[in-house]
Structure formats: C-alpha cells, structure tokens
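Write out this protein's structure.
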Amino acid sequence: MPYTQTDLAYIAGILDADGFIGLVRGSRRKNGRYYYQPKIRVGQEEMNAIELCEKTFGGCISEIKPTLKVFRHRNRIDWQLTGGPLVKKALELLLPYLRIKYPQAVNTLTYIELRLKVPYSKLGKKEDGLYEWHKFFVHGGKIPNAI
C-alpha cells in the first residue's frame, strides 16, 4: 500500500503511545545459546490503527483474549512485525517521526546493523560484539555509541 508522510507520522504516534520497539529473546537453540529477534508491536482495543500498520508495513495481526473474567478486561488486538530486514525498513521510515520510542528505535537499528556483520558461528559468544546488547536488553542500561 502506498503511504504518505501523514500515515508515517500517525503510525509513529501510535507506536509512541501503545507500541514496543526492541529485541525479544527467543528460546535456546540446540547449542544452548539464546537468539534475539528485532520486533515492533502495537496493542490496542480498536482495529483501525492496527490495520493501518499492517497495510503499511505487513506483519501479522492477532487477537488476545483476557485470561481473567473481569468486566474491565477487554480483548486486545496486536500487530507485530518481526525480523531484521522488515523491522529495519519500517524503523528507517518512522525514525524522523518518533519522539518517545526514538532511543529504542536507534538501538534496535544499531543491533540489526551489527547483527548483519557477525558470522552465525560467533553468535552468543562474548566476542561476537553483541554481548553488550544482551546486557542492555536483559538488565537495562545504555549501549555505548548507540544513542
């Protein structure tokens, strides 16, 4: 779908308010190491903004039903975009419009760039260049030279 600058600014506002930009730790591989996947996610109760995100960048939409039967808990609709190339393209387009999630977007883009330079056989080891990212995303902190 063709998008306008207004669409990008609107989606950036949605992300700033109700979104997540970052890395999600996946399960252990057979070699015992974890892997990290870049992800953008938005969760809302209404479908309109979620559909705009999906039509603009692709990804998938899912409905999350509340686990507790409480009157104030409602169904939530999530949009997710995962994988380095897709997340990279979306963040590069949205970066000028992001305000609150700007640091997370810069960190995620930097991780994607670093990850493209690291051979698969070196992933998960201290010398892979991504060890500091693990500490940042798991324990919190600031990545040197990222923001």
